[in-house]
C-alpha cells in the first residue's frame, strides 16, 4: 500500500503522542479555510463548570491488537467503537440527533424541497409539512477517486441532499472548528481506501458543498439512501490527519478529540489506555469523571485480583472456560453474558472455482474450530447454518450456547467432534489441486490466528496441500484478495450484510472479503439501501446465494462477559438493566 508522508504533520502528531498535548492545544493549527467565503468561524474557547474533586474510573477490556481507526476493518472491535464514541463526534447517536454537534438536519428531495427536519424538538426526525426549495450559496468540495480525471464534467442532479447545520461552538480539542473539511476528509477516505467498514453509503455520495464558514454542509447522493443517518459517525480531524495514509493515520493514538474525552496515552507494555476529560467540550453535559483508565485484562486471575481489590470497577471482556464462575464468586460482583455482533468467519475467494469452494465448506467443522480458537467449551454461540449471517436480531443479552457436547451445525453436517461427517465426500478437487491451497489471515488477533491454524490442520488431515499466508488486513483487502493470491481468509467481522457482499467501488474492496460481485445481488443491495427491500428480504436472498456460491461461512458469534464491581454508579443497580458494554460509560461516576 502506498504510504503518504507529510513530515511537518507527523512531527506535530508525534509531539502530541509523547505527552505534550497541552502545548499542542495552546497553539492549535489553523482552522480549515473555505474558498471565496468571508464568514470564517473563529475557534471557540469553552468555559467548563468547575469540579469539586477529581474523579476517575478504572475499567477492564480485552487486549488491544490493532490501531484506533473505527472506519477500518483492520481496527474494528467492540472496544475501538467504544473509544470512538467517547472521543469522536457523530451526527446521530443511537438513532437520535447529536444536538451538541448539529443544530438541525434537513432532508431534501431531487427538486431541492425540504421533506424532513431533524432538530432538538424532533431528534429522530419529523416529516416537513411545508416544503422549501431554498438553498444557501455554497462552495463545492467534491472528493474524487485517487485515479480520477480532474476535468470538469456535467454532473446529474442529486437524487437526495442532506443539509447539516453545525453548532457554532463545535470544535476539536485543540481549538480548531469542526467544518466541512472534516466531512469531506471522511468521505474521501472511505471512497479511496480498501478495507473500510460499511462504506456503501459513502459510495453513494456525489458531492459535498458548504457555506457559513463550513458550518452549513450539503451532501448530495446519487441514490435515495434510506439509512443516511448512519453516515458521518466518528468524524475525524482533517487538519491533523490529511496527508497521512488513512490505513495508518490512527495506528497509535487519536491525536485530537471532539467528544467528552480526549485520548491522553496508550502504554502498550502496561496495557493501559488513559482518557482525560475534554475541557474544550462545548456540549450541555460534559463528562462526570476526570479520567477513564481502560486496563487490558490478560488473564482471569489478574481480573479477579483487580476487581476484588477495587482497582477496576467494571469489565467487558471475552470469557474463558471458567471465568464466569470465577468472577461470580467475588463478593459484591454482578456478572452477565451476551452475544455480540462480531462473527468469526471463513470467507472463500470468488477467484477459487465454485466446486472447490463447496469442498472447502464441507471440511469446515465449526464446533471444533470455535472451541480451539476460543480455547473453551462453554459460553460459545455457534451459527447453525452455512453462510450464517449476523443481524441485529442475532444479538441478545443473557443468551449463551453451551458447547460441551457435539453440536450439529447446519447443512455441512459438521458435528463439532473433529470426525469427518458421514455425508461428506472426499474433497477430490482440493486434493488434486496443482498447487497448495492458500489460507490468508491477519494474525494480530490470537483467536483468528488460532482458527486459521486449525483450519489449515483440518485441510491437511483431509489430504489437501495447504499453506497459511499471514498479512495485515490492509494488504489482504488491497492486494491479496482482489488478485486471487489467497484462496480463503479467516477473520472476525462486524460489517453489515449489504457491505459484506457489495461489489467493489472504483476497483477497491470495502468490507467484502470474498471479492464476489454479481449484478443481481448488487441490484438487490441497492434496493435495500434505498429502502425498497427489507433486511429479511436481503437475508433470504443471501442465504440462497450462499447455498449456491459457498462464499462466507460464519461459524461463531462473539460472546461477551461483563463484570460489575462495587466502585461505580451506572444506569441501574441491576446490571441486567444496563445497556451493552460501555454504551453509557460517559454517564457513569465513581462511588469513591
Automatic annotation (TrEMBL):
Matches recorded under Pfam families: SBP_bac_5
SUPFAM superfamilies named among the record's database cross-references: Periplasmic binding protein-like II
Domain of life: Bacteria
GO-annotated molecular function: peptide transmembrane transporter activity
Residue stretches making up the Solute-binding protein family domain: 160-503
Keyword tRNA-binding recorded: no
Keywords, in A-Z order: Signal
Parts forming coiled coils: none
Biased composition (Low complexity): 41-50, 130-146, 398-425
Biased composition (Polar residues): 119-129
One biological process term in Gene Ontology: peptide transport
InterPro entries: SBP_5 (IPR039424), SBP_5_dom (IPR000914)
Signal peptide residues on this chain, from the entry's feature table: 1-25
Keyword Metal-binding: no
Location of the region described as Disordered in the Swiss-Prot/TrEMBL record: 28-51, 119-157, 391-428
The protein, known as: ABC transporter, substrate-binding protein, family 5
Organism (species): Corynebacterium matruchotii ATCC 14266
Taxonomic lineage: Bacteria, Bacillati, Actinomycetota, Actinomycetes, Mycobacteriales
Amino acid at each position: 500500500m502506498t504510504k503518504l508522508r507529510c513530515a511537518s504533520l507527523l512531527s506535530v502528531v508525534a509531539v502530541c503522542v509523547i505527552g505534550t498535548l497541552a502545548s499542542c492545544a495552546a497553539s492549535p493549527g489553523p482552522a480549515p479555510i473555505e474558498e471565496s467565503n468571508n464568514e470564517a468561524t473563529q475557534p471557540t474557547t469553552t468555559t467548563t463548570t468547575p469540579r469539586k474533586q477529581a474523579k476517575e474510573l478504572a475499567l477492564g477490556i480485552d487486549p488491544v491488537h490493532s490501531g484506533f481507526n473505527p472506519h477500518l476493518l483492520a481496527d474494528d472491535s467492540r472496544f475501538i467503537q467504544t473509544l470512538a464514541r467517547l472521543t469522536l463526534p457523530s451526527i446521530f447517536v443511537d438513532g437520535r440527533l447529536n444536538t451538541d454537534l448539529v443544530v438541525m438536519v434537513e432532508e431534501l428531495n431531487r427538486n431541492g424541497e425540504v421533506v424532513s427536519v431533524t432538530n432538538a424538538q424532533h431528534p429522530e426526525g419529523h416529516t416537513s409539512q411545508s416544503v422549501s426549495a431554498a438553498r444557501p450559496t455554497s462552495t463545492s468540495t467534491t472528493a474524487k477517486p485517487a485515479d480520477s480525471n480532474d476535468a470538469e464534467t456535467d454532473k446529474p442532479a442529486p437524487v437526495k441532499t442532506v443539509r447539516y447545520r453545525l453548532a457554532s461552538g463545535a470544535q476539536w480539542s485543540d481549538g480548531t472548528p469542526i467544518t466541512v473539511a472534516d466531512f469531506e476528509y471522511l468521505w474521501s477516505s472511505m471512497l479511496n481506501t480498501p478495507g473500510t467498514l460499511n462504506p456503501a453509503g459513502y459510495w453513494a455520495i456525489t458531492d459535498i458543498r458548504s457555506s457559513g464558514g463550513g458550518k452549513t454542509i450539503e451532501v448530495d447522493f446519487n441514490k435515495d439512501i434510506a439509512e443516511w443517518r448512519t453516515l458521518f459517525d466518528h468524524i475525524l480531524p482533517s487538519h491533523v490527519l490529511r496527508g497521512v495514509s488513512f490505513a495508518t493515520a490512527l495506528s497509535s493514538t487519536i491525536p485530537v478529540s471532539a467528544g467528552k474525552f480526549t485520548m491522553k496515552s496508550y502504554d502498550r507494555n502496561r496495557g493501559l489506555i488513559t482518557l482525560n476529560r475534554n475541557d474544550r467540550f462545548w456540549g450541555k453535559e460534559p463528562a462526570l469523571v476526570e479520567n477513564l483508565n481502560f486496563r487490558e485484562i490478560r488473564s482471569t486471575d489478574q481480573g479477579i485480583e483487580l476487581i476484588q481489590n477495587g482497582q477496576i470497577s467494571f469489565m467487558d471482556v471475552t470469557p474463558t472456560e471458567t471465568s464466569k464462575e470465577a468472577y461470580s464468586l467475588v463478593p459484591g460482583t454482578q456478572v452477565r453474558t451476551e452475544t455480540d455482533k462480531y462473527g468469526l468467519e471463513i470467507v472463500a475467494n470468488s477467484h477459487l472455482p465454485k466446486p472447490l469452494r463447496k469442498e472447502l465448506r464441507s471440511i469446515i467443522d465449526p464446533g471444533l474450530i470455535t472451541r480451539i480458537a476460543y480455547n473453551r467449551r462453554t459460553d460459545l454461540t455457534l451459527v447453525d447454518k452455512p453462510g450464517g449471517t449476523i443481524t441485529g436480531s442475532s444479538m441478545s443479552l443473557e443468551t449463551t450456547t453451551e458447547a460441551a457436547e457435539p453440536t450439529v451445525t447446519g447443512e455441512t453436517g459438521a458435528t463439532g467432534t473433529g470426525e469427518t461427517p458421514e455425508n461428506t465426500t472426499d474433497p477430490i478437487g482440493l486434493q488434486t489441486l496443482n498447487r497448495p491451497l492458500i489460507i490468508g489471515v491477519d494474525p494480530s488477533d490470537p483467536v483468528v490466528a488460532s482458527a486459521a491454524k486449525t483450519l489449515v490442520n483440518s485441510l491437511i488431515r483431509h489430504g489437501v496441500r495447504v499453506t497459511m499466508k499471514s498479512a495485515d488486513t490492509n494488504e489482504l483487502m488491497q492486494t491479496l484478495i482482489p488478485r486471487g493470491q489467497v484462496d480463503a481468509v479467516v477473520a472476525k467481522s462486524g460489517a453489515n450484510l449489504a457491505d459484506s457482499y457489495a461489489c467493489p467501488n472504483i476497483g477497491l474492496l470495502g468490507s467484502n472479503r470474498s471479492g464476489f460481485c454479481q449484478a443481481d445481488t448488487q441490484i438487490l443491495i441497492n434496493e435495500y439501501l434505498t429502502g425498497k427491500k427489507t433486511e429479511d428480504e436481503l437475508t433470504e436472498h443471501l442465504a440462497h446465494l450462499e447455498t449456491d456460491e459457498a462464499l462466507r461461512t460464519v461459524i461463531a458469534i462473539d460472546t461477551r462477559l461483563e463484570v460489575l464491581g462495587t466502585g461505580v454508579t451506572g444506569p441501574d443497580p441491576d446490571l441486567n438493566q444496563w445497556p451493552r458494554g460501555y454504551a453509557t460509560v460517559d454517564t457513569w461516576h465513581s462511588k469513591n
